[in-house]
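Per-record layout

source: Caenimonas sedimenti
name: Putative pre-16S rRNA nuclease
length: 136
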Amino acid sequence: MSPPADVPAHFQTFLAFDFGLKRTGVATGNRLLRTATPQATIRAEGEARLAAAADRVKQWEPDALVVGVPFHPDGASHDNTARARKFARQLRGRCALPVYEVDERYSTTEALASGARDADAGAACIILEQFLRSLP
């Protein structure tokens, strides 16, 4: 799953989420530098998670959102694939912003291997930087 080629050039700032049932990592980044910065992880579930995510969107005012979608190593979907996609749809509806989905296989493992103090926020950075690198 790669970001759509139709990400408008005027979209410069992004807020990314590494969806999790108990913790959701958050990162901010921009197209110019193609880097991401970790933000405080959301420690909430259900509606509280969505409300906290929407608050971050209000705080950062990004042009678009990026959500990591997990898959099995062979690319097959699993329960969290559907949950992450539902979270992406909910964000799209609640925040009225474009939401791009990114394959986030191994992002947490990569964040831990790189020494991230907060694996969830580190994974959100990896997801966002992967997305940013794919843009023209």
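summary: The domain at 24-133 is CATH 3.30.420.140 (Nucleotidyltransferase; domain 5). The first helix runs from residue 46 to 60.
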